[in-house]
Every structure is written in C-alpha cells, then in structure tokens.
Amino acid sequence: MGRFGDVSTSLTHLTGRRGAGIYRLELVLDLLPLNWTGLHDSRVMVWADLEVAPANASRLAVGTLGPGVAAFAEPGKTYPARLDLGIDLMPQQVEVIEEVRSGGEISLCLRANGMVFPGVDHGAEQSDPESFRHDLEFRLKPAEWIEILEAWDYARGLLVQVPVLSAAETAASARAVRSLEHAATEMMHGRYKSAISACRDALETAYGGSDKDLYPELKYSVSGIREATKEQRFWLIRRGAWSVANAAKHNDDETGDIEWDRSDAQALILTLSALLQQDPP
After folding, report:
1. Residue 133: enclosing H or E segment and its boundaries?
2. Beta partners for residue 54, in sequence order
3. What is the pLDDT of residues 144-193, one digit of tens each?
4. Burial 151-168 (b: 16+ CB within 10 A, else e)
5. Strand order in the sheet with 130-140
6. pTM of the complete model
C-alpha cells in the first residue's frame, strides 16, 4: 500500500508474459482518493522509474513503467480508478535479479511521476493540470515472484537452447527434461543443493547409471574422486571441454575426420559460458 497526494494506491494485479526475446511485467494499481475534492471526473497520467529491491540487498534500477492513464469517478461516485502500467525486461536483467534475490523476497519500488487533469466544470474556469511525484513500494512474497517467473516460462528458458531437451522425443529425454525443470525450480527457490541433486537425476535418467564407465579402452580413471573438493569436481568438467576443443583445434590423423555441427558448437559454448560464470578467471 502506498499513497501519493490524497490518493491511496494498492497493487491489485501483477502478471508476467513472455515476448519475443523479452519478459513483459504488467501491474494494475487501484487509485482511491482519500479526499474527492477536485478529483471527481478528473484524469491522471502516471509514469514511474521501477527499481527492484531483493531482501538484504541494494535496489536495482530496471527501467520506466508506463505512461498509464486512469479516470476517477464521476461526481457522486467513489470507486477507485484503475491504472495499468507495464515494462519489458531483458533476459540478462532477470538473471541479475535472480542472482541477487537468491530465492528470497523482493520489493517493487516505483518512483512515480504524473499529472492530474481536472474534469470539466461547466460554468467554472478550467483548472490547470497539477503535477505530482511520490515513491511507492510493494513487497512480494517469494511465491508471488515465482508465479511471475513461471508465467515467463523462466525455468524452461534456461533449458530451451539445448536442442535434445526441447525436443523431448523419447520417454527418457522427457523424464530428464522434467528433472532439469525441477532443478531450475529448486534454484529459483534458493534450494541450490537440491537443484544440483536434480541434475544428477537428469543425468542418470537420460544416460543411465553406467554412463560414467563407458569406453574402458580410454582407461579413464580418477582415483580419490570420493574425496575430491567441489573445485576439483568442476575441473573435471573443464578437462572434458579441453578434450572436445583440442579435437577441433588440431587437424591430425586422429581428429581430422571428425565432422562438427551446430549442436556440437552450441553444447561446448554453453558449457564454457556456464563455467566462466561459475568461476570467472
């Protein structure tokens, strides 16, 4: 609940829609005058700078909402005016917000500016528009924000660039997709250990428990793996990436006949991108 001037402001609807390369956030505010003098039959135009404030973190500037227009009631009526505001967020902005939010609460902070245009009072001199400025804050529960993420299809957006998962042509791949979507949901809730565990379920579902022991002719063995640190375990992923990249870099007798396609390049690029974010050099 917030107020500007003599108007009580409440957030009645908050919705999300996914667009072409953007996430659309839409707010509906109810504006109810506490003092109707001079506001009957008037119009208000509002725009606002939007900031998000994750719990225990500094505010993050996002962009500008609106402008939106609302009409107050005719004389003798006292229902609130409806104000619709919207903003488009880039995927990178949502990523930053989610990283800072870390599964917790979040507030929407509006630095509202606007103009009130008085209604026409026949026989009286027309009043000039009046400007106003006021700050509003609406605190959301984690579940309310997660509803927005789900409306944006945010969890699936994390996976859609991996072709085999988006196709889900087999029962195993469909179950693996569900495990990864569960991992993404757990991550949104801040349950990171559970998210990583769900990734293990996805691996086993997709490739089977014996996958890690394939190709015995490579004599691949990592002694002491049970005692390895987190950093060492992530290094193993990096070492696998080295193996793939080296095969494309060197045109020798062993690798010269390998044919590479877009999905190969995409898989390695996504893997390296994730590793660089997880542990920047």
Report:
1. strand 130-140
2. 106
3. 999 999 999 887 666 544 433 444 467 887 787 788 788 888 888 888 88
4. bbebbbbbbeeeeebeee
5. 60-71, 43-54, 106-117, 130-140
6. 0.70
